[in-house]
Amino acid sequence: MALPNLQDFQFRADLAENEIEILKKKIDCMKVSIQSPGESSTIELNQLLQENGKLKHQIAILKRYVESLRKKESNNKSSVTSVSDTNKMDSHTISIYDQLMELLLKAINKAYPDVVDPPVIITLSNNSKFGDYQCNSAMPLSKLLASKGTKVSPRDVANKIVENIAESPIIEKLEIAGPGFINIFLKREFALNILMSLLKAGKVSPPSVKKQRIVVDFSSPNVAKEMHVGHLRSTIIGDSISRLLEYLGHDVLRLSHLGDWGTQFGMLIAHLQDKFPNYLVTSPPISDLQSFYKESKKRFDEDEAFKKRAYDCVVKLQSHEPDIMKAWHLICDVSRKEFEKIYERLDIKVIDRGESFYQKYMEQIIKELDEKNLLEEDEGRKIMWGDKKDVGIPLTIIKSDGGFTYDTSDMACIQHRINVEKSDWIIYVTDAGQSMHFQLIESCAKRAGILTDKQKLSHVPFGVVLGEDKKKFKTRSGDTIKLVELLDEGLNRALNKLKEKGRDKELTEEELNAAKEAIAYGCIKYADLSHNRNHEYIFSFDKMLDDKGNTAVYLLYTLTRIRSIARIANLTPEQIKAAVETTSISLEHEKEWKLAKVLLKFPDVLLKIMKDLYLHPLCEYCYEISCAFSEFYDNCYCVEKNKNGETIKVNMGRILLIEATAIIFEQCFDILGIKTVNRM
Ligand code: ARG
């Protein structure tokens, strides 16, 4: 295939943009018929609406395509590259799925120009005998054609599609099987180019995506209350989502929406005034805020005079009286220090921007909502309805006592994130119990004109954490589990596990410590991330510390094994680097090729996660790499030694394949927030 040159990219981008324009016109025509249905029945209308949706989807795919072409074009200005010439490839790793979608869409359009929005179905093949990917469009296309009066067998449709597929550097061969499946076999040379350029760069580049400004709202514990396992889930999931989006090149703002404002502060402050009257001069030792909170709550419930004083404190806090603010700061600081300890241990970066931050914006948004006549009176409170059909309950914007609520602060917050932070996408990571709240916020923000078609809002819910008895996660004595203690227990158990295997005798103290931490925190994170987040999840140290199956321990072991190979072969990093210039990765053996194909899936795994924000497929992918690597290593000699243990032969092509595996594997660990070690 000839190298596509600069003009070619330009031309292809123009063509694709043309297609977008045509699709947009089609949508406009549909809108007209939708708005003036005339005689059309509801069924036709629904069909139009459905088609409209599909066209929009097609536009989205084309837009991404145009963007990638433009990017290539601009890269071309400095050096001419093409998909077949990945040695000089731009800094993005190619998504095979996107490439195949594009090829097949074009082929089908060419074969059947009259079919609007043809179904392009591409799946991974689960048996390499039937190719690496499969296109299953022929069957639905044949049905579609039949419904329009043209009878063609699916096999004939498949043949016609294949005839129209343009030559591509990705595809080795195409075969038609069964009723009309098109089996696609990938080209080794293409894989080789991608993996070699990755080795040359010493890192794996992300696939190309449109850069966005994204707020990820996660962790978000509440001051003076314990940071519980639910917040731990939010912290782990939110951090991993942020890591993924950052890796993909987005501009991510990580925010913890602390519960640091509200009426409970009245009783906390009133209690502080009694307990530590000197609090303005010296910092009171309220290190155990939990019990401090409990004491003040008890007094609040039992002592009328105290209750009154607590309410007074709330009023004073709201009018920012200096002494009261000082007390509030003290309490928040104590909490924050506790949260910090957890973040530090788990290596989490997040900015505290709690409810208190939105104080002044709340007044403003209320005024705006009022001016737009969006607030309704309801038994003394002010409420706002979203889409009544969707949600069925309103937001409470002002309580009957004049106070603001969680709803009020979230309305102010979303406005700030859109207008001031200029975010294109806001992601909230909280337990599933808050789904309704975020649905309401979304629908009210749309009604108020704050959230428009330009921004996206996603709630990323997750299920509850249960103990091994499948009941709410508690200590044996029934208390809520303190996170610091949970992490400590993880460390102890990880150390015991290492000792059981006699590793304490093999590793230096420093190595043992690093291994202990990597295992403990890695396991806790991985156990959380590897489950479908919608399901409730059972916290079990025994299961997460198992070194068999899909666990962090198993994966970390695989990585150390991978890394030990170069050591066994006595190769320095410099020698491997030099080999990249002279040697090609070996992809001849069936198991080498299998491993390489798993590695090539990396960009597609990430793009899918970016769409639906489910992280467990990344864990499954890590496991897949692990298994493919083990199969390869069991079947393919990399280093041959003689009886005396001296190296007699090193298969450098295989060492390079191992190196590429390590690079991708480590990048996955990084996105999952799991630290790796050289030895464990
Ligand atoms: N602090 C809340 C909680 O503990 C979570 C806050 C989530 N973010 C938000 N913008 N409402 O449940």
Automatic annotation (TrEMBL):
BP GO terms, sorted: arginyl-tRNA aminoacylation
The record's section on SUPFAM superfamilies has: Anticodon-binding domain of a subclass of class I aminoacyl-tRNA synthetases (SSF47323), Arginyl-tRNA synthetase (ArgRS), N-terminal 'additional' domain (SSF55190), Nucleotidylyl transferase (SSF52374)
Coiled coil region boundaries: 6-33, 491-518
In its UniProt record, a GO molecular function of this protein is:
ATP binding
Q: Which residues form the DALR anticodon binding domain?
A: 555-680
Primary subcellular site in the record, as a coarse category: cytoplasm
Q: Name one Pfam family in it.
A: Arg_tRNA_synt_N
InterPro entries (UniProt xref): aa-tRNA-synth_I_CS (IPR001412), Arg-tRNA-ligase (IPR001278), Arg-tRNA-synth_N (IPR005148), Arg-tRNA-synth_N_sf (IPR036695), ArgRS_core (IPR035684), DALR_anticod-bd (IPR008909), Rossmann-like_a/b/a_fold (IPR014729), tRNAsynth_Ia_anticodon-bd (IPR009080)
> SMART domains, from UniProt?
Arg_tRNA_synt_N, DALR_1
The protein's Enzyme Commission number: 6.1.1.19
Sorted alphabetically, the Gene Ontology cellular component annotations on this record are: aminoacyl-tRNA synthetase multienzyme complex; cytosol
Which reaction(s) does the protein catalyse, per the Swiss-Prot or TrEMBL entry?
Answer: tRNA(Arg) + L-arginine + ATP = L-arginyl-tRNA(Arg) + AMP + diphosphate
Query: Where in or outside the cell is it found?
Result: Cytoplasm, Cytosol
Record bears the keyword Chaperone: no
**Keyword field contains Cytoplasm:** yes
Query: Where in this chain does the record put each Arginyl tRNA synthetase N-terminal domain?
Result: 98-186
- Family annotation (Gene3D superfamilies): Arginyl tRNA synthetase N-terminal domain, HUPs, Isoleucyl-tRNA Synthetase, Domain 1
This protein's UniProt keywords: Aminoacyl-tRNA synthetase, ATP-binding, Coiled coil, Cytoplasm, Ligase, Nucleotide-binding, Protein biosynthesis
| Family the UniProt entry places it in | Belongs to the class-I aminoacyl-tRNA synthetase family.
* PANTHER family referenced in this protein's UniProt entry, alphabetically: ARGININE--TRNA LIGASE, CYTOPLASMIC, ARGINYL-TRNA SYNTHETASE
Name of this protein: Probable arginine--tRNA ligase, cytoplasmic
Q: Could you tell me which species this protein originates from?
A: Microctonus aethiopoides
Q: What is the lineage of its organism?
A: Eukaryota, Metazoa, Ecdysozoa, Arthropoda, Hexapoda
